[in-house]
Write a structure and sequence with these properties.
Blueprint (H helix, E strand, L loop, with lengths): L1 H11 L2 H5 L30 H4 L2 H16 L11 H29 L4 H8 L5 H13 L4 H13 L4 H10 L5 H11 L1 H27 L18 H10 L5 H13 L2 H20 L2 H8 L3 H13 L4 H13 L4 H14 L1 H11 L2 H25 L1
């Protein structure tokens, strides 16, 4: 199993997977700056041409946003070829999101100082409701995209976490990170953000418990890598020791600022791409058609699920599109479904889970258990909205 996961690590170069070091090996602190972003594949060699080393998704999306944000001050709304509508859509979204992005970057910088091994130590203990709750907490704490968190989940399974814990971790993590939660609150409203947050955590908790119940019933094979942590491992003692050893001075502030920029790259690249994609949808798809196909109906709900399954967009990129579903289609349940479907139906996630666990049945459990819950809650949210 180690060989499989290590192969995944080498093939992806993901910062999240590199950080999960094997037991007994000193931790390696890696950041996005060390290589490509978690959703961007391996980093080019240092002597590669500039055009290969450039993060085209990040800087291309950022350039489009800057150009059209400025153009929004001079272009009329009805400018030819939809350029005015596109510019004003970009401007409107960025005017709402800018402070959430800055606060989120600060949160990422602070969280990046927390050793990932500390989180993995919390999640890898005994089974049951408490262990699933710990997996939820770890999933929310790690500020990673759905592809980056997948590598951590694979490493957790290799190191002995139960399949139920891994599922709860994967479902809870992708957009429940602090940075994206703030942006969801800014774009969709804080009340809806809290509803989405608790609903997604409920799905993650229920799915984790269901998988562990299936394991106890003999329907799911237990993790062959299961191990017990030493009794002398005390999480809060380690935390207090780490805090006592931290000096909150100018060097600390500079380090957090640096981490805020480097560790936010994987979030920003997909978030900016999502803004461009959402502005393009707002420009090309009339509101009437949008409300018909993606409105607060059963057809709209299933169409949203289908679109989220087909569109391989990272969790950060899904947030602006989900906000468009909320605001233009007046379908909060569809927005929730679009956000959750990335964790529930992502085919990359299914294939990596199959490779890591060695069982297609175990990998297919994730969409089979989560999609019905997502659709039910989405339908209820549409009714409430």
């Amino acid at each position: 199993m180690t060989d499989v996961t290590d192969q995944v690590d080498r093939n992806t170069g993901c910062c999240a997977s590199r950080a999960a070091a094997a037991e007994g090996i000193p931790p390696v602190k890696a950041s996005v700056a060390d290589g490509a972003s978690c959703c961007g594949g391996t980093a080019p060699a240092a002597d590669a041409p500039v055009w290969r080393r450039l993060d085209w998704l990040l800087w291309g999306s950022a350039a489009i946003i800057v150009v059209f944000y400025v153009a929004g001050f001079v272009l009329p709304h009805d400018a030819p070829y939809g350029l005015g509508r596109f510019a004003h859509s970009v401007q409107k979204m960025m005017n709402v999101m800018w402070w959430g992005i800055l606060v989120g970057m600060l949160a990422v910088g602070l969280i990046d100082r927390v050793p990932r091994e500390f989180v993995i130590g919390i999640i890898g203990r005994d089974q049951g409701a408490r262990s699933v709750l710990r997996a939820l907490g770890a999933g929310v704490l790690l500020d990673l995209c759905n592809h980056g968190v997948l590598m951590v989940g694979a490493k957790l399974y290799e190191r002995g976490a139960s399949l139920g814990q891994v599922f709860a971790f994967l479902i809870a993590s992708p957009w429940n990170s602090l940075s994206l939660t703030i942006i969801i609150g800014v774009l969709m409203g804080w009340g809806w953000m809290l509803l989405f947050l608790f609903a997604s955590l409920a799905i993650a908790f229920a799915t984790g418990l269901a998988v562990e119940a299936l394991e106890r019933a003999g329907r799911v094979r237990p993790n062959p890598n299961r191990i017990d942590l030493p009794d002398d491992f005390h999480v809060w003692s380690e935390a207090r020791s780490g805090l006592r050893g931290t000096r909150f001075d100018l060097a600390f502030a500079k380090d957090v600022a640096k981490r805020s920029v480097t560790a936010s790259r994987m979030v920003l690249r997909w978030l900016f791409f999502g803004v461009v994609l959402a502005a393009l949808i707002q420009t090309t798809v009339p509101t009437e058609i949008f409300q018909t196909w993606f409105g607060a109906t059963l057809l709209g709900l299933f169409t949203t699920l289908l679109a989220a399954t087909i569109i391989e967009v990272c969790s950060e990129g899904s947030v602006p599109i989900a906000a468009d579903l909320m605001n233009r289609a007046a379908a909060p349940g569809n927005a929730f479904t679009f956000l959750m479907a990335g964790a529930a139906t992502d085919y990359t996630e299914t294939m990596v889970l199959r490779q890591v666990t060695g069982r297609l049945k175990a990998a297919l459990l994730l969409p089979l258990l989560t999609v019905p819950q997502v659709l039910l809650i989405g339908w209820l949210l549409n009714g409430a909205g």
